[in-house]
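User: For documentation purposes, I need each entry recorded in a consistent format: the amino acid sequence on its own, followed directly by the corresponding structure tokens. There are two entries in this batch. Please keep commentary to a minimum and don't merge the entries.

Assistant: Recorded as requested. Entry 1:
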Amino acid sequence: MKIALIGYGKMGHEIEKTARQRGHEIVCTIDINENDKFDSPEFVSADVAIEFTSPESALQNFRKAFAANVPVVSGTTGWLEHLNEIKAACENDGQTFFYASNFSLGVNIFFALNSYLAKIMNQFPDYDVRMEETHHIHKLDAPSGTAITLAEGILGNLDRKKVWSLNKSDHKNELEITAFRKGEVPGIHTVIYESEADSIRITHDAKSRKGFALGAVLAAEFTKGKKGFLGMEDMLNLHP
């Protein structure tokens, strides 16, 4: 495959290494202040663009890729208030977009486990639930997209929680998410159910960016030749 990289920081370099190991060609890299490359023949030739940038630049990146009719695989979080625009471009304009809040295979297994546990805990109201997430100091959005996906899995299955809130909550129907930013932590997410008798914790602890990079390249391979709005649930069969 011919792959373009939008965002050429640590994650972009890790994706490049993984893509090359799997036999793919990197035809274009676009970093900050290189927007003119969206109009280049190299970018237009790409089978898919993999995008990991910032919440502020993501939407414009998607629009520019769509203007060149290049499918996009994105792992950028913090822009989802514009999700309907991207879905409309897929449905009405024939564009292709694959979004995941986290491309790690282990995290997506964790998503399925989290939803299943919430269904079980719906029967046990003595347990309150909260969440903690820790990332490196360079991560700009909080809570993480992964934490929001986990929260949605809980809210969809646990009747006693109606909304999530960032940091301290005083309302019983709110799912409290505490976000920590320190060091170079790739990502730790913990869901905690607690009663007077005991506590139940499930944790995913990413060791490096390699798992995210592999998942993004696998998503690019899956996306080639397809149309519409896609996600990890289309690529993996992990739901009970």
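Entry 2:
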Amino acid sequence: MEEPSDTAPGLGRRLAVELIGTFWLVFAGCGTAVLSARFDDVGAGLLGVALAFGLALLTAAYAFGHISGGHFNPAVTVALWLGRRTRTADVLPYVVVQVVAALGAAAVLLAIAEGRPGFSLARDGLATNGYDTRSPGGYGLGAALLTEILMTAIFALVILGATDRRAPRGTGPLAIGLTLTVIHLVSIPVTNTSVNPARSTGPALVAGGAALSQLWLFWVAPLIGAAVAGFGYRYVTGGTGTVEAQAEAQDVD
């Protein structure tokens, strides 16, 4: 497999911004769902949660994309690796840091949520993902699996396309953030939207219980979707679009 050049910032610096960016994505998105989505009659609601995830990703990608590539998601890291945009040696460190960041974000969110009298983790939840009785709309396993595979594949394809060297420059994070917003609008009722194994793992580990028993789907489905996009992109578009991250700030390399 062709590998990107070795001219990107050092691994430690890239991991540091992946940690910050993933923390911000998970905290902002899940925090909106837990703290403000159902706040009396002026809560953010489904649209607000979708926008929170999309805007958090957009801002993190603009801030850190030129350093680490702005993955903030194990499925994105895998898709970019299969699409020849990420070094093989970076995959495991990126995934580990993303999961640690998501766990930290969920722990901080719980600490804040518990500051409200009457908050119950068992009753109010922590924006965990699920199917069947844990699906916001009561959707079953098959629907959840199909939704997460499809949404992740589309998300990864948009990332690969928006950061292609042939794409308009400087607009990558905007396209990616808006795509994540639309994905949430479609799939929150089905699974509470994952498309990101780290985002699912952090809240599930903190919440425990039934959330952990269904966590497997939110690794398997996004990784299948990532593989479809990673393998398929260059065959559909006729090129890998590989370019050095620091040469094009919007690139996810």
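Summary note for entry 2:
The chain has ten helices and no strands.
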